[in-house]
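call fold(seq) -> C-alpha cells
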Amino acid sequence: MHMPRRRTLVAGAAGAVAAGRLPFAPAHAAPAGATGAAGAAGAAGAGRTERMYLSGVDSDHPVDWDFLCTAGRNSGVWGSIPVPSHWEFHGFGTYTYGWNLVPEEKGRYRHRFVPPADWRGRRVFLVFEGSMTDTEAWVNGQSAGPVHRGGFYRFRHEVTDMLRPGEENLLEVAVSKDSADDSVNEAERMSDYWIFGGIYRPVHLEAVPVQHIERIAVDARADGSLRVDAYVSGTGAADRLTARVTDHEGRPVGEPFDAPLTPGTTPVTLRADIPAPLPWTAETPHLYGLEVELRADGEVVHRVDERFGFRTVEVRPGDGVYVNGVKVVFKGANRHTIWPTSGRATSARISRTDILLMKEMNMNAVRMSHYPPDTHFLDLCDELGLYVIDELAGWQAFYDEEAGAPLVAETVTRDVNHPSIVFWANGNEGGWNPALDDHFGRYDPQGRPVIHPWANFRGINTDHYESYESTRRILTEGSDIFMSTEFLHGLYDGGAGTGLDDYWRLMGHEPLAAGGFLWALLDEGVVRDDRDGAIDVAGNAAPDGILGPYREKEASFYTIKEIWSPVQLAEPGRFAAGLPTDFDGRIWLANRYQFTGTESCGFSWRLLDFATPDDGRAGHTVSAEGEAVAPEIAPGAEGVLRLPLPSRWRRADALSLTATDPEGRELHTWTWTVASAADHARRLVSTGPGPAARAAEGDGELVLSAGGTEVRFDTATGLLVGAARDGAEFRLGGGPLPTTGEAVLERLEHGREGASYVVRAAYSGVLRAAKWKLRPSGWLQLDYHYHLTGEHDFFGVCFDHPEADVTGVTWLGRGPYRVWKNRLRGVQPDVWAKEYNDTATGADLWEYPEFKGYHADVCWASLHTAAGRLTVVAEEDGMFLRLFTPRVGPDPMHTEVPFPRGDLSFLDAIPAMGTKFDEPATLGPASGPTPATGDYRRTLHFGFARG
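ret:
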C-alpha cells in the first residue's frame, strides 16, 4: 500500500515545494505538488489530516502578510512582509548580534484567509513552526491561546470555535523580539549568535476529526522489534488502533498489528516484530513508512503516517557509543541554521545543500547548535544519512523549569521519530538545567541519551576546546567516553582543518574516543541592507566556518575530506614524497567505515601528464586510465588494492587514485608524483646555444644580458636589483635574503663560464653563498646555501616584488589552496591557476582559493605580472612558495600567522596556524616550530617572458 496523500493548501500562494524530494513524505512534510487555495490538491479523504498553509511553505516560497514594526527602521507604519521571514531582512527593526536586548521592538502581523467550507465539524489547530520570540495570536478578534515564549519551537492552538470555514477570516499575530521571561532571554537570546525577530518558519492550519490521533512516538529497534505509542485525543466511537509498516515503495512489510482502545486511555501502545528489517545508519539510511489508523467498528476515523528507521542506540559506559551493536565514531560539525539573505528562515533546498556538503567532507554527524532545526533538515538527515545531536536552546544560561519544560516537550514530540537523532542535548556550555534532564525521556520511548555539551555527564565527556595534550590524557588516562561537542574553533582560516590530522590520530582511534564536532560548519554572515549589502560577520564573533556565508569552500573543507575519508592509506608515509621507487601497483588500504565493506566502493586510476608554463593553461592530460577491482576489506580492517597499470606508467608525471562510496560519491582522490622537480626543470629550463651572455659594471650595479633578458645586481650587497625582458621591467629584487638572520657580503666575483656569465657572492651570517648564472637563452639560475640551526616558524630565502604588479599565478605543486604546517592535507599535485584576490578569510570577499599565502611542494610557478610572465623553477623537491602576506580579519587572536620579510619566499619550513582559543604549539606535534638542521642548498631558475 502506498503512503497516502494529504490535502495541503497554501492560502494566497501560487504554489509550494516538496520537503527535499523525500522518497515518501513524513507526516510533517509538505507533499510535492501542493497548490494554491484556488486549486487544492484533491478532495478530502476520510480520516485524513488536512493542512492549509497561511504562510509560504519555506523561505523560498513566502506569502505576503500585512506588517508593522514598533521600533527601529521603518517603524510605526503598516506595510507588508513575506512570511516566513525575519523582519530585519526586509528593512524593519534592528540587526542584533547576541547579548543585546531590544525590548521595545515588536512586530504586528495581519493576514486574511478562507478555510475550506467542509472543515465544519472538524477540529482545527493553528500551528506555528517557529516564531521569535514571544508570540500571541488572535483569530477573528479572539485570542487563540496564551503567549508562547521560546523562539525555536513548534507550538499550536486549537481555533475550532473561532474559525469560520468557507468565509474570510482574520489572523492577527503579535511577536516580541525579546521575551517577557528573563530565563528565555538568557537561554536563547543573550547568546553568541545572531538574534532576529519575526515569524521565520511556516504557519498553517490543521484540520482533524473530532476524535483523532494527536501524535505517535516510535521505538523501532535494529532487531525488528517495534513499539508505537499512539496518543488519542477527543471522544468518539473509536475502539481500536491498527498499524502496518511499508517499505520505501509503499509495499507492506510484515503483518498488520493492532491494539484495543479503552476510552480515556492514552497513549495506546502497539507492538510488532518485523522480520529482518534493513537497519538505519548514517552509512545505510534505510527508511520505512508507518500507517496508524484509528477505527470504529472497522471504519477508519483518522489516520496518520510517519517515516522511521530501525536502529538501536546504546552508550556503553567506559567503552563507547554503539549503533545497532557496532561502535561508532562521530565525524561532525556544529551547524547554525542561517542563510545570509534570510537569517534563520531557510528551506529544504538550503538544508539539502548543507547536508550534501557535510557528506562531501565525509562527515557522518551534525550537532544542532544551539537550538532545534527546521523539520526539513531532520527529514533530509534521515534520508541522506547523518547522525544528529538535537539541542534545546541554552548558551551559558538556561531556561528555568517552568519555561523550559514545555519547550523540551515541544522539541521531543516534534522530533522523536527521526532515526537520525541519536542524542538530545540539554543546552550548551552551562546552558543546561539539570531539572530538565528527565523531561526528555517522558516523550521519547527510545530513551535516547541526554548530554550536557561542555561537561562530563552520565559517562560521556563532551568538553570543549581541549589542547592536544589534554585530549591525549583524557583518552589514555581517563575512564569515560570522550566525544567533544566543540573542538578546533575555526575562526577565519584557523581551526577546523589546522591541527585536525594530529587530533584525529587520537579522537578517531583511541578506545574511549567517540569522535567529535568541529566548530563550525558556516560563517554566520548577514547581508546588511543598512550597509549597502555588505556581509556582516560581527567582527570576529561569527566567521568560524569551514564554509562561507554562501557555502564557499575554504581550504579546510578539503583537509577534512581527506582526513575523514572512510577509505585511508594504511601506509601514508610510504607515499609522502610521491610514488616510491619500488612501487608495483599495490596499495595497502585501511577501511574506516563502521558498516560498509570496501567491496561496495569503487576505485579508478589515471596517469597524468602536467601542463607546462608555455601551454597557457592549468591542469593535465590523461595518458591512461582504468578501474581496479575493489578488494574485500571489512570495516576496521586493512587489505591490498591492486592497480592494473600499463608497463609504461613511469613515463607519466603522476598517478591518481579515486575512491568512491557505494552511491558513486567521491570519498577522496590521491595524486602521487612520478616525475621529480629535477625532471620538470630539465624539460623547462632552456640551456640551448645562443649569443654569449655579456656583463657591464657601473654606478654600483653589475648588469648581465643574454637572449633578450637583462638582470642587475647591487655590487655592495650582491643582491638582485631587477630584471627586464625586451625592455619590459620585472620588478623582482632585494634577494636572496634569508628569512631568518642576516647576510653580510664578504666577497663578490663575476666572470664567464662558457657562454654563460656567473656572479658569485660569499656572505657571512645565515646566508653563506649565492651563485647566479645567466645562460644564453636568457634563463637565470640561482644556487644558494644557508646555514641555520634551532627552532623557527619558517626558513628559506625571500625577494621583493610589488604586489600591485601581479594579476595571477599558475603553478605546479599541491593546490589549489594555500597550506600551513599543520594543514598540509587536502591539496593535491597538479598545475593550478588562480587570479589575484585580496581575501581576508572569513572576514570579507570570500573569494577562494585565497591568492596569498604558503603553497606546498612547488616545482614551478609562473607569476602573471604587468611586465609579463615571471617563471621560477625549482631543482629540488619539497619547496614551499610564499606569495605575499594575506590580510586577516579584526582581532584574529591565535589565527594570525607570521610571514617572512619581503614579498616572495622560497622556503624549507613554514609556520602552523592556531585556533581562536589556542596557540599553534598546543595543537599537536605538527603545530610547533620546525627544527633547522644545519646546511640547506637549493637551485632556482628564473625565466622572464613578455605577454
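The mean pLDDT is 94.
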